[in-house]
Amino acid sequence: MGFLLSSTTSTSTSIFHHKICTVFISKQAGRQGFDQFGALTLKAMPEEKSLTITNGSSNTKTPHVLTVAGSDSGAGAGIQADLKACAARGVYCSTVITAVTAQNTLGVQDVSIVSEESVAAQLKSVLSDMRVDVVKTGMLPSIAMVKILQDSLKQFPVQVLVVDPVMVSTSGDVLAGPSILDTFRQDLLPMADIITPNLKETSALLGGKQLETINDMRSAAKSLHDMGPRNVLVKGGDLPSSSDAVDIFFDGKDFYELRSSRIKTRNTHGTGCTLASCIAAELAKGSSMLSAVKVAKRYVETVLEYSKSINIGNGPQGPFDHGLKLKRSVCNPSRMQKFDPSDLFLYAVTDSGMNKKWGRSITDAVKAAIDGGATIVQIREKDAETGDFLESAKACLEICRLNNIPLLINDRMDIALACDADGVHVGQSDMPVNTVRTLLGPDKIIGVSCKTPEHALKAWADGADYIGSGGVFPTNTKANNRTIGLDGLKEVCLASKLPVVAIGGINLGNAREVMELGVVNLEGVAVVSALFDRECVEVETRKLHGLLKEAVGSVKV
Ligand SMILES: Nc1ncnc2c1ncn2[C@@H]1O[C@H](COP(=O)(O)OP(=O)(O)O)[C@@H](O)[C@H]1O
Ligand SMILES: Cc1ncc(COP(=O)(O)O)c(N)n1
Ligand SMILES: [Mg+2]
User: Is residue 169 lining ligand 1, measured as CB closer than 6 Å?
Assistant: First the structure.
């Protein structure tokens, strides 16, 4: 994905742009950094006009955008897009609904305008109580609503106003008629810190001006700026002559050409609302205007690319996936069922050293363990490089998913997230369990190594799903690992509110003793050497599986 920004002064005659990866070029000198989408950026510079939000105690303030817009029943645009965009960008979003539209991927079927009293009351409710940083407007379907907004903001001022002068949807349907134009020009635009019209809206605001080239967009941005807004972003999503998606940003002094690749997709319904909300969200977080616009554009490009093949509705214009989650659950379904403690019955933990010693790949090792009856797999690659570890994890995950066996990653939460593994197993000195739970979310499996009843109780309180307790017997796999013995294991099991898997030196010779401890929450054994430091993993796993079944007299499918 390329994305380029170039800057020229308003007096310069030509816009220059260099399509070199993701480097932004500015005539102004500034510090370089990377934004959250990986693009090299120029940090806000002293001379750059900044709309930085100053919230006294800004460290503890939750950034808050209020969107004043119409509802879209198809949830691709309008209020629904604004809520999703703000959520995706980590900003709280409250809502004032100005109209209820019946919309889908075919277009707009009905518009019902909310009463002026209700809009005024909604504005008052939110603005009088909640500390709103940025107000973002979308569909304002009547002159009265613009006036109400103006009055409300006089009574309850906010620091920034982002105006998306919605008039025509991407589908071409009219959402605010031409009678509103004078009010937009005279009242709304002068209040705005930034306006974000699309080409049709730009043309309408300028009395029907033809817009066919990037130069036309540039002069239009200047004309709109003359109407009073502090900044103008003319969006070129619909510019037919351009193979890239080019927007022109003008701050009254400099023009910036924001260029990204044009994603080939039908799923562009709501791009305008999303862009404006994302700008508002970044401003609420304290960004300067130019950085906010750059991040928002990159966000739109990223979500369009990610969502290009999702399939919602039968019409020509589909919505996209603000949260970057839908495709994963459709194309790469994770194990949908919840964690089942009986999965811990025969827990195979890989060891890169042993696989190397026996000349087998990690995927062969995992496959053999599953064929022999392993009921859960953990990949433990202490020495692997991150890139190699990720590739191994992805390959093992494919095998595990085919066999409906959960795959956990030892310690490396980043690897688990990157490959969408079923969970992680952490030790006492790894990332704290409550942090792992926050980062992995409620659905992933988290296991913790515990040696004491105190560890076990903490694991439960912190949100783990199971504990691994040991080393039960002496083992070579872990240096300096205190052995707790069968008594220690039993003590931990009795204290634990979570299911337990025993670990440490367990093999065909002692597994029976472990399973016969007679504590209900001891679900199984985790094994490294007894499976992987052997010539034939499948045979060893099968033998251990048989022995465990005999020991508990139950069958694990
Ligand atoms: N196919 C696309 N690929 C990449 N970016 C796009 C695409 N379509 C629109 N955009 C971007 O989405 C944003 C919204 O633009 P636009 O579609 O022109 O506005 P609106 O949705 O209000 O009609 C702009 O930043 C534009 O460049
Ligand atoms: C309620 C509502 N507000 C705004 C738009 C503009 O949508 P788009 O971003 O597709 O131009 C819309 N279609 N519906
Ligand atoms: Mg659009």
Answer: no
